[in-house]
Amino acid sequence: MDKVWPVRDLPAGGGKYRASDYLEVGGGMAANAAVAAARLGADCAYWGRAGDDEAGLAMQRQLVDYGVDVKQFRLIAGARSSISAVIVSQDGERMIVNYRGANIPDDTSWLPLQRVMEAAAIHADIRWVEGASAIFAAARSAGIPTVLDGETATEAAFAAVLPWTDHAIFSEPGLRSFAGADSLHNDANRRAALAKARALGCRVAAVTRGSRGTLWLDGEGFHQQASFAVTVVDTTGAGDVFHGAYALAMGEGQSVAQAMRFASAVAALKCTRQGGRAGIPSRAEVDEFLVRQ
Ligand SMILES: Nc1ncnc2c1ncn2[C@@H]1O[C@H](COP(=O)(O)OP(=O)(O)O)[C@@H](O)[C@H]1O
Ligand SMILES: [Mg+2]
């Protein structure tokens, strides 16, 4: 849960400052991806955990408002949700203080994994390693494609999840955390880092690079999807939305190249509007945008 205070300039030190507004917006990579998939027309469920506090209830309510099924979004009694204070300046600079929450168990025994059969695709982020591994393993047995948001995580986290992942889509910081600082040096190093991910078992390994496009490595070779040139207003959640759109495309049976193009269009359109969730385009807007390219 992000608690957002827009200010003119970022605070320079201790003192009292005035915000022009105050917003409480749910976030989280997989939750934002779920909102994107739902907004694009998917029948989508979010499985995850938070505390049974005000923030947990608000996050649940917001997902429902976006049409996401939250029956397996568990609010754990006595646990505390992860909350961030976000101070945003007029020129878009952010100061974020995060409280990670407390007493949220990693146990996965409550997940109704047999229901994975009902899904056309599964997406997970890397924050709940046990949960992602469990559902990806179930999806692998059922032949359902899985997509991982490879954000910054430990080596152990990647080692646990990548063997069960079909499509590992890293951000640049995520790829760096997986394969080391050199991995972003040049295309040869990026390719080597993606090959390292594929060696752990995923079919497609990709890295999103903001306005510089997306690279991916699969059995056929190394490919690129350029980012669409748009007037950028707010890039918050671009990666999350890219993943939600990509997972939706996998569920629809699109090819990897088609899915990369589709997800890039959805993320680019999101960047033209304010808000990680509020800025997500509809399917009709994306289809119209793509025919104009
Ligand atoms: N400035 C931009 N212009 C066009 N597309 C963008 C821009 N920033 C991000 N995107 C799209 O969103 C995707 C994810 O953004 P990126 O910044 O790589 O991830 P994250 O938000 O996780 O850091 C990119 O691959 C691209 O398709
Ligand atoms: Mg990201």
Structure description:
- The protein has 293 residues and is an alpha/beta fold.
- The protein has one domain (29-45, 72-79, 106-292): UDP-N-acetylmuramoyl-L-alanine:D-glutamate ligase (3-Layer(aba) Sandwich), CATH 3.40.1190.20.
- Helix content is 36%, strand content 19%.
- It is built from nine helices and twelve strands.
- The protein has a six-stranded mixed β-sheet with strand order 7-8-9-10-11-12, sandwiched between helices.
- The longest helix is centred in the last third of the chain and has 16 residues, at 256-271.
- The protein starts with a strand and ends with a helix.
- 44% of the residues are buried.
- The model has no long low-confidence stretch (mean pLDDT 97).
- The structure holds adenosine-5'-diphosphate and magnesium ion.
- Magnesium ion binds at residues 29, 151, 171, 239-240.
Contiguous runs where pLDDT drops below 50 for at least 5 residues: none
Q: Compute the number of strand runs.
A: 12
For this structure, the quaternary state is single chain
CATH superfamily: Ribokinase
Radius of gyration: 19 Å
Largest sheet: 6 strands, mixed
Number of helices: 9
Amino- and carboxy-terminal Cα gap: 36 Å
Molecular shape: globular
CATH architecture identity: 3-Layer(aba) Sandwich
Give a summary of the structure in a few sentences:
The protein is 36% helix and 19% strand. With 293 residues, it is of the alpha/beta class. It binds adenosine-5'-diphosphate and magnesium ion (MG).
